[in-house]
Fold this sequence. Notes:
By secondary structure, the chain is mainly α. The chain has 7 helices and 3 strands. It is globular. The two termini are 33 Å apart.
Amino acid sequence: MILGILKHVAQRIERYYSSISDRPSFVRRLFGSRRTDPLRYEHVIVHSDAEGYYVPQDFERVIFPAKALKIPGGMIGSVPRLLQECRGLAKLLEIPAGLDIESDEVLEAAESPGSGKAKWQRYGIESFSCLRLMAACEASLKAGAAIVFC
Length: 150
């Protein structure tokens, strides 16, 4: 099931990047009009996991500010949307509610992907990452602070 979902997501990403490449009106299209085919899990997939910001504001699409602003990673994501997407992924991964992200069980799953009885354990790295992102989102919303990748 997860492989089917990943294949579907990969196809959507390919279509997304095909639709924006080699078009001079990309910025106008991005900010001037709505895309009719939204990318599912955009704030997880499109935003860099190495650098950039997520801000505690709700907006549909990842923002690509002008290069002159020199935003690290060149992208700004929405914390509420990231949290929503991670909660959806947590359901797909069958992560139990209230699972302690600091528990040995979670750390062992991350260190031994592909093993374990539960789906979330077999996808230990993905589950670990999902739980960490959800915790960061909740802290961000509580404090009104950005999540910074650097």
